[in-house]
Amino acid sequence: MAKKKAAKKKVAKKATKKAVKKATKKKATKKKAAKKKVAKKKK
């Protein structure tokens, strides 16, 4: 049982890491879009 619990925890950690990566990617793309908008306004 202890081994199974540890395995589940590992899987959960991997899942959260993936979720965090996705979130940071989304934030980065939003920032890029915002920068593009600012550049267009300046022109």
Automatic annotation (TrEMBL):
Residues 1-43 are annotated as: Disordered. It comes from the Bacteria. This is Histone H1.
